[in-house]
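Comment thread on ticket #2218

A.B. wrote:
> Attaching the input chain for the structure job we discussed in standup.
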Amino acid sequence: MLTQAENDTLSRVGPGTPAGELLRRYWHVAAAACELTEEAPVKAVRLLGEDLILFRMPPAPGASEPGYGLVEEHCPHRQASFRYGLVDCEGIRCIYHGWKFSADGTCLEQPPEGPASSFKDRVRQRAYPVQKLAGLLFAYLGPEPVPLLPRWDVLVREDGRRFGVIESVIDCNWLQAMENSVDPSHLYWLHGSLGSRNLPVGQERFAALGLQSGYGEENEFFGFEYGIMKRRVTPSPKPGAPPEMEQHPLVFPTYLRLVPSLASLRALAAAQTLTEEESKLRYVHDMDFRTPIDDTHTMEYRLVFLPSKTHMPAGADPPFESSPFKDGEGKYRLDFIPAQDALAWESQGALTDRSREHLGAADRGVIMLRKLIGEQIAVVKRGEDPIGVIRDPAKNIRIDLDVVHEPLGLYRSEPVAS
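C.D. wrote:
> Ran it. Output below, let me know if you need it in another format.
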């Protein structure tokens, strides 16, 4: 268990907090690009406890792609909100008195001050960099120099196609979601037990999830260049066949890379038409992006990649669909695996009290993650880059996460039969 002070250190995300300063060294998903359109180019967002305005600028003269900006919500003049701002190819203008700012926070115009005034040169708006990749808008809220936006394999592979899922706001702290990523024993109990309208209770449901009717698995965790590698070994569903191994890295601090069975993703892909080739796939590739909104809310975006002969250029925007965790009556969609996770996380409380918990041997991954967060907080306090920050373009052409990584010798746990 942790003390309340230790819990706050690891979980709270606002400016100046230890975890908040660590999280600001990484890129986070602010929105899907399709959420901003020419007709509705402005979206209010809350990231790491800050109220911000994300906006889409029409292409500048000679350009073919729109630009994006992210600024503090309130205009520095009289504090009117930019959520009602007017956007053009240069930036965003406050609707109250017309002050206009570029995407980097430079004050471009102050019409009431007159053309001879130099007042605008002494005013800036807090602004953060935004980059688009694979239809997602990533924001960086940390100090300069700005690191490279990582080009994870799911984002840039071209030997297949992508689609995205915009999931619900989760009413809990980001760390509860990420601890789940190194807590493999929940797969059997949570996902094997909660109901599915499509599968009967019993072995058929377990088999669809790649599970045995009796609980029995081994788990190993070790550090690798970008976070914590989780390996899960389970008995094969085929009698006499060797055990099966799955490898799901937690990409520090807020991403989870999965290689789930296609059957387990069909609920996510209900609106997607699968080709005959894709329908025969056993595995697809998936990345979950968890964005800390504030101390008690988290947003999740998911990007799925299906290897196939249908190629998708890395620069193309994939289709996105919305998949809420609850139905119109506010009930969890228990036939939807991410909603099952959300149910468990939210049931722990908006920011769970870790001083009351009792961890066992099966919680080694959770303990390892907390240790890693604490160590990386210390790294940031020393003025150094934490784990996984990329600055070398040669290492960022495409980062493959589905290869078998070897342990670095840190944060390792021996396989544990739980």
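A.B. wrote:
> Thanks. Noting for the ticket: Confidence is low (pLDDT under 50) at residues 196-205, 261-271, 408-418.
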